[in-house]
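Contributing: when you submit paired examples, paste them exactly as shown. First protein:
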Amino acid sequence: MDPISYLLLIITVLLSSAVSVRLVKGLGVKNGWIAIIREDRWHESIAALHGGVGFYPALLMGMIIVLISYYQHSQLDSGELLLLMSLISGSFIMFIFGLADDILQFKPVTKLIIQSIAASLFIVAGGVYPLSDNNSFNIIITYIWIIGLTNAVNMLDNMDGLTTGIVIIASLAVMMYTFLIGQSQFPAFYICGVLSVALFGFWLFNFPPASIFMGDSGSLSIGYLIGALTIPSSLNGVFGFSRENGHIFSYLFLLIPLIILAVPIFDTTFVVISRIRRSVKIYQGGRDHTSHSFILKGFSENKTLFLLYSIGLLGGAIPIFLLYSQVLFLLLSSVYLVTIFLIGAYLSNDKH
């Protein structure tokens, strides 16, 4: 796809998303599709539901156009095209299921089954973590990663503007990294660009005080996308690593997705440990996320958002140093991960 065509696509997706989200917000308020204020939720004002219905169609349109462009110009082989198709199809499944879940409230086991089906599409098409010679082990790790990130992004959607901003940052990080290693020849560059602008159109209405929430239709679909896009594959140029006999011999590549997506991973780990310690069901809602804990420590909502955005930006920037020095990349990654651990310890202290 040439730069002018891509720029036009980006503008179209952004405008389509913003207009559609505004329309969904109006319909939500008019028809009573609004979030109910509850003790285990953070919002304290009226906000429309089903924001995913607003931005996802624009996102889907953009991804399909990227797919058609690659197909028309024969830039990908059949296997890579299938992998790209599976990525789009899996996100669509998560969107439809997420919308149904927003309305019907399925049990956690049902969610896990559907998430596994969506992950299977990507895995069967060849999107598998290239960790070792044991393909079964690689597949298990890939299921854990995709399903885990899908749910982590879903759980992170606990404060106005948080999930939207963090996924935008992560998408731009993957976009920038794939550009630097391949001069925009990889599909992840274009898909992440489309994802980030579609979400930005939603973020305009989701930044505090939010007037609309994305719901599971939004969080599950983008969680699936960012989880699959951060698996080293032909879609992202295997993050610049060489692959021999099906797997990568340097485990540095594992740090790239871990650091780029540190915020949702950190939040989920923090919540799971907290709820296990308190003998509370992991999947139930609550005001015990990292964002809530910062506010209980005296931070304002906007300062908390800025702090978590900053952590996400740092995580997104660190992998770029790998292109220049492995030692510097390892040093920065270590400092970054230790800092997050210390933040978790600070938030856990005297936690309510």
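Second protein:
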Amino acid sequence: MNRRKFLAGVIGGTAVAVPLPFLNCFLNGNGTALAATKSPLPPVFGSWIQNLGLNPGRWKPATTGTGYEAGVELKVLDRFKDKTNIISGMKYFLDGRPQETHTSGLQIATMGGLPAGGSGSPSFDTAIADVIGKRTRFRSLEVSLLGNRASWSMRDGGTVNPAEPSPAALYRRMFGLDFKDPNAAEFSPDTRELARRSVLSAITDERKSLVQYVGSEDRARIDQYFTSLRQIEQQLDLSLERPAPVQACRMPKQVEEFPTGAETELVAKNDQMFAELISHAIACDQTRVFNVNFLGSGLFRKGQSREWHNLTHEEPVDPKLGYQPDVTWFIDFAMKRFADFITRLQEYPEGSGSVLDRTLMLWQTDHGYARTHSLEDVPVITVGTGGGRFKTGMHIAAAGDPATRIGLTVQQAMGVPISSWGKLSNQTSRPFTELMA
């Protein structure tokens, strides 16, 4: 038995396969390296891209270096303070090009500059995936929290890696794609069937055989792992149930198999589901690169009248508070989703620590201040050390520096062999050496 072992089974003619996490029997005595090769557990890179920035004066720490106090809008990350870096003052440079609001900043952040002509440069997450993700089942996984397929992960020539908006569909990709029907052009197993009958039920015999060959700690870890998978299935199953009828409600012509969308309740629920599934994918070495997209700023809403993007332009600044209160509600909601996602990575046990211990996660946004579409003083956040490749716990002020400095730093930390990155004024050969371990 080795770390790439799958437990296989069949549900109604559909092949399913459940990978195993890094068990103690695969690791050294400290739970920090692979026993067979003595090499450390592989690093993981994740990105979180969120539209509409933060409020000036409410996020930036007053002091630099360690021991900083985050502004109120980043207080939700205080529980990860020793694992977090905040970088302030950076800028997106247009080099005389017209600004495409909500787009130009993220083009620079992910591709290093504005595209020339109709095709863009590859995003730097794909360069990282080409280094650390070559041998994984999924080169990268992209998910969307707003029910669309918007993504900033891009291969050379402008080929976008579309985001998956449905946790149910991601579940199928992870556990139901080994089967291919030779008589069908396309095949997708029914999520309801997978959830109700359970992929775990299909691997009962192999699971019983497995526990005979591992120690007590690994048996406990396997039980915890499968319990977590069962909880995912139960959540999917509940979400597929038809709700109680409401007299004023009219059924649409077509009902999606799993609710996705930009309403706050769905966003919060799907955030938890995606965090759980991606934690499993990392722990089972199915992917080492993932991208979470909080994109679609014209979609995200609370109820029928409060929509984040429009509010950034239309809501007046409260003279007493000094900021837009409804916009700030959305900012706080979004940052809570980011914190919840990180929390699940932190809580997922692995070796002597957690999945977060070998993850480096980068939070980026399109504007410094959405109300004015500013490209200055853009907030950037990193969480995690990437398995010891990053130093953490710092606030770095990089006034006026190109935001591509962080992209260069992250790529070098993940082993991408480059000495500079970016275009024109966004080009830089200055990584944040103080963050490099």
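If you have annotations for the second protein, write them as plain sentences, like these:
The chain has a mean pLDDT of 84.
Residues 1-40+172-243 form one domain.
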